[in-house]
Amino acid sequence: MSSGFQYYTPTRVIFGKDAEQQTGELVKEQNCKKVLLHYGGGSARRSGLLDRIEKSLAEAGLSYVALGGVVPNPRLSLVYEGIELCRKEGVDFILAVGGGSVIDSAKAIGYGLANEGDVWDFYDRKRKPQACLPIGVVLTIAAAGSEMSDSSVITKDEGGIKRGCSSNACRVKFAIMNPVLTMSLPAYQTACGCTDILMHTMERYFVNGGGMELTDSIAEGLMRTVLKYAEILRDEPGNYDARAEIMWAGSLSHNGLTGCGIAASDFSSHALEHELGGMFDVAHGAGLAAVWGSWARYVYRDCLPRFEKFAVNVMGVEAGEDAQETARRGITAMENFYRRIGMPTSLKELGIAPTGEQLAELAHKCAVACGGKKGSAKVLQEADMLQIYRDSLG
Ligand code: NZQ
Ligand code: ZN
Predict the structure, then answer these.
(1) Once rounded to an integer, what is the mean pLDDT over residues 297-320?
(2) How would DSSP label each residue in 5-46?
(3) Stretch 74-83: mean pLDDT, rounded?
(4) Distance from the alpha carbon of residue 265 to the mean position of ligand 2, in angstroms
(5) Residue 159 carries which DSSP code?
């Protein structure tokens, strides 16, 4: 039986070629006085996108201050810098030009400005944010889905502690999505993005409790679409239609749509990956691919009907007599897909070799971050997390 749910997607989406030309007008509609133009490590400058955005803001008569330098696994130190800069400059709107890292950094700065006290408290689960400065997005990578999600993930520099904060307050006002902007992505980042998009739906699909046929159909259709177009993009990075399919999938996969009617999502693979990102600074999508197979083999017996359905409806496995065997073939098929798009399926392939001590630290931090336990397909405790990390060593 389906569980009750709330579905809240207040973000206006402007999708298509040249969509970023409307940036100035869209920001102006927000009635703001001063904008923070927030961006990453240089790709948006190199591609000429930032010049176009700056021109669009100037044409709309908007004054702005710029802060670049957001890195993947965005850091708390830059968030503090942004908060200080915005206070000094009287910023009342943030425009994030980039991917999940830039958007999440913008959300954290927005929290810091709209609430009293230390912004890290919200990521450390000590307090809940009550408000956020309004944010707009020009998306340059289809991956994290932050442009429509309620979430922001920040890494504290000391100790590499990566933590998420979820609240509807940070949902962005508008998201400009021009698939052409994603054509300059390195193949590895495109593949990381496709993996993350798949995972946001898989985390809501492999669950015990609730469920709706309509939501399952949307989820399975979304996953099949990503599987198809990820491979097309590997061979044809300039294929507009493939870029568009993946970009829209990225937003729908993490705006709550594929979770409507389920009792509780799983998100264990994400929890396991966030610790890898914090300790080893790996790319989020690649980290997810590296642990997913071990997680799936550890939990599938506790969530067998879903793994069997996934194998048949998403991975195209022929249903056999033995449900467990069908489920395992679905897991293998997904790992083979990851390999075909150049994603790792173990920590070794990810390029890291944690020591026994580090594995124990990862599992402990993961358990602490989750409040002791995590998951819906199977509820994991610290010992389970440690076993999955060990199984994924490769
Ligand atoms: O910094 P620049 O130079 O722009 O380079 C970026 C970065 O190196 C590059 N890039 C982005 N657009 C490009 C481009 N290079 C060439 N052409 C373009 N058009 O790609 C690299 C990755 O960018 P990043 O923003 O880090 O990627 P992504 O969107 O995957 O974001 C990852 C972060 O989001 C978090 C992850 O944990 C990670 O910290 N997540 C956020 C979520 C959310 N807020 O809802 C949910 C996710 O599960 C995830 O945890
Ligand atoms: Zn993710």
Answers:
(1) 98
(2) -------EEEESTTGGGGHHHHHHTTT-SEEEEEE-SSHHHH
(3) 98
(4) 13
(5) T
What is the arithmetic mean of pLDDT over 103-109?
Answer: 98
The rounded Å distance from CA 354 to ligand 2 centre is 22
Identify the H or E element spanning 60: none
CA quadruple 340, 342, 344, 348: dihedral positive or negative?
positive
The three-class DSSP label of residue 376 is: coil
CB atoms closer than 10 angstroms to residue 99: 28
**Joined tokens for residue 383:** 């010992």
- Angle (CA) 52 56 58, round 5°: 115
Pocket of ligand 1 (CB under 6 A): 40-44, 72-73, 98-102, 104, 140-141, 143-146, 149, 151-153, 181-182, 184-185, 189, 193, 196, 254, 270, 277, 284
Query: Does the pTM exceed 0.85?
Result: yes
* Token pair listed for 334: 């997904």
Give the distance (Å) from ligand 2 centre to CA of residue 276. Answer: 13
Ligand 2 mean position to 55 CA, how many Å? 32
Q: What is the pLDDT of residues 138-197, one digit of tens each?
A: 999 999 999 999 999 999 999 999 999 999 999 999 999 999 999 999 999 999 999 999
- Terminal C-alpha separation, the chain: 39
* pLDDT score at 1: 81
pLDDT in tens, 187-243: 999 999 999 999 999 999 999 998 999 999 999 999 999 999 999 999 999 999 999
Return the pLDDT at 379.
98
Give the residue, out of 104, 135, 199, with the most ligand 1 atoms within 8 A of its beta carbon, to mutate for a pocket test: 104
Q: Counting atoms of ligand 1 from 1, which one is nearest the CA of 102? A: 25
Residue 68 buriedness (CB in 10 A; 0-12 / 13-18 / 19+)? middle
Q: How far apart are CA 204 and CA 273, in angstroms?
A: 16
Q: What is the mean pLDDT of residues 248-269?
A: 97
